[in-house]
Amino acid sequence: MIHLVALTLYIAAFLLWLRALVGGVRGRAAHVPGPVAAAGVVAHLVALVLYTSRWGELPLVGLAPSLSTLSLLIGVGLVATLWLGEAGRVGILLMPLMILLEGIAAVMGVRPAPADLDFSGAWFALHVTLGLAGVGGMALSAAAGALYLLQHRELKSKRLGRVFRFLPPLATLDRMGRIGAVAGFTMLTLGIMLGWAWTVRFRNTFAGGDPETIWAVFIWAVVLSVLAARVGGGRVERRAALAGVVGFALIALSFVVIRALAGDAGGFFL
What we know:
- The protein is mainly α and 270 residues long.
- 75% of the residues lie in helices and 0% in strands.
- It has two domains: 1-114, Four Helix Bundle (Hemerythrin (Met), subunit A) (Up-down Bundle), CATH 1.20.120; 120-270.
- The model has no long low-confidence stretch (mean pLDDT 84).
């Protein structure tokens, strides 16, 4: 029930941001979507805390709980941007993603998966949380990058209309994209290192052929490439924005592919 409350608040926040964009809303009304989104994140957090209390485990095992947790982590990142004023309007792209993730989780039913994992406890919880937070960081970077490209096009074409007035300045969007990419890379690196450390400690192997390991290394390489796009000359900011969008698209596409290949035999990410 509380998941539906969070989902409703997310939808309301998105519609309010859309109204601000289309209708050119200004003043106090332009800041309303932020608190509504924050209320949704709070409701979402309460729902997952109750899940943990009821089932005696964190919502990290199984597809539905993992998607719900990822949605929440993206929401936490979005709420953090609200302190930067106009930067919070990146929610117009992040909110549909959060709605999609939480909506799928709600339809599937957020309940523990019947999985018997040998990798569990604090190691497991931290490993998965860091991994999901890393993907959430890349979602923020991609959203900021997409809005950067849109704002750049508005400036280049000298169309200083509603879109231009709604979107944050280019410098703000570029800074958000960089922060998201750096945070994503850091979290993913720590998560992968923790998983490998456990594997070496208890299995005496790197388990390099495991599908989830291959996927983790792939998305780590993608995020590293996004950061590398900021190095060198030329129009670095625009190149970095495009890399952020393409990078997250590759992460999402690879997840869909590996999930389809795994079928019902997937693990906590799958």
